[in-house]
Design brief:
single chain, 3-stranded antiparallel sheet, alpha/beta
């Protein structure tokens, strides 16, 4: 077989993904004629047709599917080479231990770790899950470098004396309900309509903050208190109750669970805050910056 060029592999892979020469040209910034030439060169090198042309676009032949699958591996490795070479000039290295409260470990913290890993290959970030009080103890003891904590009117006034605080996100709370619940699809819902609902709440160690019933309800009816979020949301999905969740976890909610906003002027929500020691190194700055960036994207 004649040699397949990297450009030809990239084009074949894109055409299989988009199903169109025109869409591939837009995706890669080529002209449509350039895409056609690269496909023809790839077919010449392979010695077999890679695509079947039709009125509605193009479809890969078995050979085209095979080449595209192998091309994905090759292109990923080539992209990795570029990142590795860029990492040689990256002055950031070492290890940062990132702590986060449980719901922040669903989406916010993992995506921030991925951002740091992509930009700073020499910097290792270890992610630990713990409640806010536990994180603050670990931070002062030097066992973690960044603590992502929750702060709000319904939470204790934590002792942050001598620590540095960076606002990460405003933590708007939502109500999670079954997709078949009467409130599903209504947005926002007046807080008065939550009266009489049955609530599934969190259960943990004494002093650990939890997401419980809606904070301003005077006498919520609690039908279940469970430690793990997957069990709590399983009860919600089954229609056995509703629960309060932070907005930042919405992308990770399981099938069968939807969220609604609540119109409640009396509730200001919580904030996610990154707490560090004041004399923090550049690696910690990079982690805090990634947390704020991801929070903006999620918001």
């Amino acid at each position: 077989m004649a040699e397949l060029t990297v450009t030809a592999l990239r084009v074949v892979h894109a055409v299989v993904g988009t199903g169109s020469f025109t869409a591939t040209a837009d995706l890669l910034g080529y002209t449509q004629s350039a895409v056609s030439r690269q496909v023809a060169a790839a077919e010449s090198a392979a010695g077999v047709p890679l695509f079947v042309r039709g009125a509605r676009g193009v479809a890969p032949t078995p050979a085209g599917t095979l080449v595209a699958r192998r091309a994905a591996v090759v292109l990923a490795e080539l992209d990795a080479v570029g990142k590795d070479l860029a990492g040689l000039d990256d002055v950031l290295g070492g290890r940062v231990v990132l702590g986060a409260f449980p719901t922040a470990t669903w989406v916010l913290a993992p995506r921030a770790v991925a951002v740091v890993r992509d930009r700073h290959p020499g910097l290792t970030v270890d992610l630990h899950e713990a409640s806010t009080p536990t994180q603050l103890r670990q931070l002062r003891a030097g066992r973690i470098d960044v603590a992502v904590i929750g702060m709000g009117a319904d939470l204790p006034a934590y002792d942050l004396d001598g620590l540095r605080r960076d606002h990460v996100a405003d933590g708007r709370s939502l109500v999670a309900v079954s997709q078949n619940h009467r409130l599903a699809g209504r947005d926002p819902v007046p807080v008065a309509e939550l009266a009489g609902e049955e609530w599934v709440v969190g259960k943990g160690l004494r002093g650990d903050p939890q997401f419980g019933a809606w904070p301003t309800l005077p006498a919520p009816k609690v039908v279940g208190a469970v430690r793990e979020w997957n069990a709590r949301l399983g009860l919600v999905a089954a229609g056995l109750g509703i629960t309060t969740v932070p907005e930042l976890v919405v992308p990770a909610l399981p099938a069968g669970v939807v969220t609604v906003r609540v119109d409640d002027p009396a509730w200001l929500g919580r904030a996610a805050v990154a707490v560090t020691r004041p004399d923090r190194p550049a690696g910690v700055d990079a982690v805090v910056g990634a947390l704020r960036e991801v929070a903006r994207e999620l918001g």
